[in-house]
Amino acid sequence: MFNLSRYFSTLSLILIGLAAGLLGLLYREVSVHQMTALAEDRNVAMAQIFENALGVPLSGLMAASVGKDASMLQESDESLEMQASVTTLMRGTAMAKVKIYNRLGVTIFSTDPTQIGESSLDNPGFKTALSGTVISDLTHRNRMDTFEGVRSDIDLLASYIPISSEGKAVEGVFELYQDVTPFMASFRHMLWIVTAVVAGVFALLYLMQLLVVRRAQGILHDQAERIEAARSTLEIQIGARTQELRRANRLLEDEVAERRQAESKLNYLAYHDPLTGLANRRYFLERLEASLSDATEKNERVAVLFIDLDQFKQVNDSLGHGVGDELLVSVAATLCEHVRLIDMLARLGGDEFICVMESVRSDEEVAMLAQEVIAAFDSPFCIGGHELFLSASVGISIFPNDGTSVGDLLRNADTAMYRAKAMGRGHFHFYTPEMTRDAQERIKIEMLLRRALDSGELSVHLQPQVEAKSGRLVGAEALVRWDSPELGSVPPARFIPLAEDSGIIITLGTWVLRETCRQVMCWKDSGFELPQVSVNLSVKQLERPEFVDTLLEILDETGIEPSRLKLEITESVVMAVDDAFSLLDRLRKIGISLALDDFGTGYSSLSYLKMLPVQQLKIDRSFVIGIGTNPEDEAIIRSVMALAQSLDFEVVAEGVETAEQAAFLSASGCHQLQGFLHGSAVAPAEFRARWASLPR
Ligand code: C2E
Ligand code: CA
Ligand code: CA
Fold first, then answer.
1. 532 CB under 6 A from ligand 1?
2. Given ligand 1 and candidates 459, 481, 490, 496, which is best to mutate, with the most ligand atoms within 8 Å of its CB?
3. Per the CB 3.0–4.6 Å rule, which of 57, 96, 467, 565 could disulfide with 146?
4. pTM for this predicted structure
5. Is residue 509 within 6 Å of ligand 1 at its C-beta?
């Protein structure tokens, strides 16, 4: 650190020393000058006195000196006379010696007579005085011959003073030696005192300044230490703050990265189906919208293919949602793998997929794509140990012919898909305007159906069920019929699905049940006893919590014995209805029989089947048709028989049209037969007329 006091003490010491020295010198100079001036004045005054007093002898000596040698001058009368006068004048004064030169520089007089006659032409004092100026010089002599004898250690002021009469040229020069020893002694004494005082004052000043500086340095040092401490504290704080900021920055960066990730994830989720990873409905709609405006500009066509899995609902209902989800993932992967040429594949939800083909050149190209989609389902899907055979139905709409908006195209492709489904499994269909007419008709039918319930347009027909071995009437299946004034006779296949979709089936089903029971009791009362009657139940009916109460009400109201009633349910009930087992159990406890309709078309697992409180299996018509022509169908029928036997089920075959079918079924161990061979569903009166007379 910068040492202020040392720096200051050195510097101020030098300065003070310098100042004191200079001051001493100045004082000395001034004093000497003053003293010289004073002594010189006295010399001049003395010279004047000499000149005045020596007037005549001096002039004579001046004149006589020219051309004479030294000894002559020394012994001249004028010289001796002057010697006496000068000595007299000098006595008692400070004069120590007097010399007089003539104009030629020759010493014409001296109080030391030996010097008379010497030439001093080169003496600078003489030269100056000769030009008319007085000049003095202060000297110190260790030894000096004065007119009163030899003196030692003497201070002298020698003055050269010109001699001239009023207004005349210089005739000669006085050289006067004045003894200034007492002056010089007192001057030296004074100089000592002044020097001591000045030195004392300066020393005091220096000391005071040193103290002040020391103090200042102490304060500065303290402050420097404080500043240093503050600086290091600040540095620590800055370090901590920097760390903190860095940490905060890192946190912020992490947060930003996390947020970005979350955003992109959200964005992904917003536009993708979380299950399959395909584009979702929103993505599809936006993308199709863009494709359409692009196609409008380029005057191109865009095809929308609506894909629906034919048996997905059964899989989901019978094997569970887990398997259903896995199947959807598998289907999505298969579609991506097998289907080329598409510009987008999306899942709209459930088992509905959609694909878009841009820049369509021909219908054939679209048809090929649809074929590819359908072909993707040729091999079975292996999910959770199950080998699932699926098929898809595809409906196609093409921009701009089948619609210019996304909504129209989607709806029309959906409509076309329904048509494809109606054609059976694994078909595709292009949209046609008639389909919209059909859809409108569906709406119309639905409206008419609601009215039909109240206006007595519905009736229950009965189809006989006979014992395979004997052909004896054992029961009948109640099948609803609709005779509409506007539409004529409408088959159930056309209005039952519609009634199920719209919910009308609840009222309709209850009406059929009540009407059937009422009819059977009416017959009984009038002497025609039908051993058992089967009524079809929709899943929608069983889902209703009030179903059992309604059933009990009908039993109570009509008085029918529960054992005389059989309810036909499909396999899907087990998966679709919550707690299906306990519900079916309750029905069994009431005494009602249960039959599993359309058996063989679903995906019932054997373990379920074993637990189901069902007495009868109804082999689906599709297997019966194959008897005599399709060995596979025959094999299925035989295995169903074996299964039924081991699990103690009664088996009914439906759709029996030929004697050959009847014979095969009977031989296979089928208990009952139902079909056109024994009679189609007819009105109660006709049924009674046909069967009342026959022995039972
Ligand atoms: P389902 O329960 O399988 O009924 C048997 C269907 O096969 C009936 O058609 C019947 O007329 C027809 N059928 C019977 N024997 C033969 C045959 O030998 N050959 C041919 N080709 N067909 C035969 P329907 O009456 O048109 O009923 C169709 C479906 O409508 C029924 O299928 C059933 O699922 C449903 N359905 C009918 N009535 C009702 C009802 O009251 N309630 C409910 N929920 N569904 C009903
Ligand atoms: Ca049935
Ligand atoms: Ca059936």
1. no
2. 496
3. 96
4. 0.52
5. yes
Amino acid letter, 97: K
489 - beta bridge partners?
483
Does the CB atom of residue 492 touch ligand 1 within 6 A? yes
- Which residue owns the Cα nearest ligand 1 atom 19? 655
pLDDT tens sequence across 326-358: 999 999 999 988 776 677 899 988 889 999 999
Closest residue by Cα to atom 30, ligand 1, is 492
Q: For ligand 1, say whether the CB of 480 is within 6 Å of any of its atoms.
A: yes
How far apart are the CA of 295 and the centre of ligand 1, in A?
47
User: Which ranges of 376-503 would DSSP assign to H, the alpha helix?
Assistant: 406-422, 433-454, 492-502
CB of residue 512 inside a 6 A radius of ligand 1? yes
What is the number of the ligand 1 atom nearest to the C-alpha of 479?
Answer: 38
pLDDT digits (tens, 9 = 90+) for 157-201: 999 999 887 777 888 899 999 988 888 888 888 888 888 888 888
Angle, alpha carbons 72-75-77 (nearest 5°) = 110
**537-541 LR contacts (CB < 8 Å, sep 24+):** 537/509, 537/567, 537/568, 537/569, 537/573, 538/496, 538/500, 538/505, 538/509, 539/569, 539/570, 539/572, 539/573, 539/576, 539/577, 540/500, 540/503, 540/505, 540/506, 540/509, 541/505, 541/506, 541/509, 541/510
Nearest Cα to 371, choosing from 398, 352, 354, 393? 393
Question: Ligand 1: does its nearest atom lie under 6 Å from the Cβ of 463?
Answer: yes
Distance CA 183, CA 135 (A): 19
CB atoms within 10 A of CB 245: 11
Quote the tokens at residue 74.
Answer: 């020394």
- Report the distance separating Cα 78 and Cα 526, nearest Å: 214
Q: How far is the CA of 568 from the centre of ligand 2 (A)?
A: 6
Q: Is the CB–ligand 1 distance for residue 536 below 6 Å? A: yes
Amino acid identity, position 611: M
Q: What confidence tens digit (pLDDT) does each residue in 638-655 have? A: 999 999 999 999 999 999
Q: Are 5 and 214 in contact (CB under 8 A)?
A: yes
Cα distance between residue 518 and residue 564, in whole Å: 12
- Give yes or no for residue 497 CB within 6 A of ligand 1: no
Tell me which residue has its CA closest to atom 15 in ligand 1.
Answer: 675
Do residues 110 and 97 touch, judged by C-beta distance below 8 A?
A: yes
Residue 484: beta bridge partners?
488
> Which atom of ligand 1 lies closest to the CA of 460?
41
Encoding tokens for residue 245?
């900021």
Residue 392 near residue 421, CB atoms below 8 Å: no
Task: For ligand 1, atom 24, name the residue with the nearest CA.
Answer: 492
CB of 538 within 6 A of ligand 1: the answer is yes
Q: What is the pLDDT of residues 304-322, one digit of tens each?
A: 999 999 888 888 888 888 8
Residue carrying the six token digits 């297997």: 623
Q: Which of 489, 500, 536 to mutate to test the pocket of ligand 1 (most atoms within 8 A of CB)?
A: 536
Q: Tell me which residue has its CA closest to atom 7 in ligand 1.
A: 655
Alpha carbon distance 313, 351 (integer Å): 8
pLDDT at 673: 98
Integer angstrom CA distances of residue 465 from 171, 303, 476 = 191, 50, 5
Binding site membership of 320 for ligand 1 (Cβ less than 6 Å): no
3-class secondary-structure state, position 617: strand
Share the mean pLDDT of the chain: 89
How many other β-carbons are positioned within 10 Å of the β-carbon of residue 558?
18
